[in-house]
Amino acid sequence: MIPITIRQLQYFVAVYEETTFSRAAVREHCSQPALSSQIRNLEQILNRLLFERSVHGVTPTVAGQRFYRHSVAILHSVNSAKLDLEEVSGQVAGEVRAGLIPSIMRGLMPFFLPAFVDTYPMINIRLIQGLSDSLANLVLSEAVEFAVMLEPPKRDGIEITKLLEARMVLISSPLLNFKRGEPVRLKDLAPLNLVIPSPNHMLRRNIERHIWTKEIPVGRILEMDSVHGMIDFVSNSKWTTILPLMAVACDLESERLCINPIAEPYLEADLCLVNLTRYPLPAPAQLFIQELRHQAEAIGTPGAPLKRSKVSIPRQIRGVI
Fold first, then answer.
1. How many CB atoms are located within 10 Å of the residue 129 CB?
2. Residues 286, 292: contact at Cβ < 8 Å?
3. Among candidate residues 29, 56, 86, the one where a domain is terminated
4. What residue numbers bound the domain in which 138 lies?
5. Secondary structure percentages of the chain, helix, strand, coil, to 5
6. Count of C-beta atoms within a 10 Å radius of residue 40
């Protein structure tokens, strides 16, 4: 029996997830004819048609769908073995390539990152900021090893793990005279001048649903697609905005903002880890995610000092997620 190669499995998974041979070839850094030839050889070995071809791309057959699950499991196992050998020395070293949403970059990184890089001098860090859809694409293209985002889109080839629930807060200037840290029922407030992100942002869709149902009374709306810009604008005006608490973690002791937990309506969202199914996360990435989650969980209530978590090396690197 002719053996199936790891390269053939990689090419097959790429075609399955990208839905066209051209995009799969770009992803695998090979020519399209070479990739097509490998897929044809694989189909001959299996004696099964794995894809239905058309001018618009490919559609996996039933056999292709089944073989995809086996292929991903095999690739994950092979990559796990590689990581296990790399980590046999027990030294925490390597690289972290992560995609993070703006709320995390602004609110958590100022506290989290200095302690992490001091604790792990052998780990190189590369962080990219983006919205959920763009970060998911970066994971699929392997530009980053993983991404942390709110309510990620579901895609073939990516694994989604819930890290925690992100609480939403009402952010305003002291000019509006809200009592700092006091929970608010938005429908009981006078109509708000509200700054919201653009329609392609998950937070916008969540907030708009409650505006339509009159649970958030609104006087005027201003659209802005920058977390930094939204917070700076609100701090100097009589406008408000709604963001995850972690976006203002570095402002919990600040006098320039009033931060109020939202009692009603329910505006929490899942903060999730997104990574490729076929690639287990290496030890540096696991450490980064573990400590980031601990920092997010350690955020105190608005009006109280921020509880800063201490970065520490766990006894076991594996299985921290």
1. 16
2. no
3. 86
4. 94-156+280-297
5. 40, 25, 35
6. 11
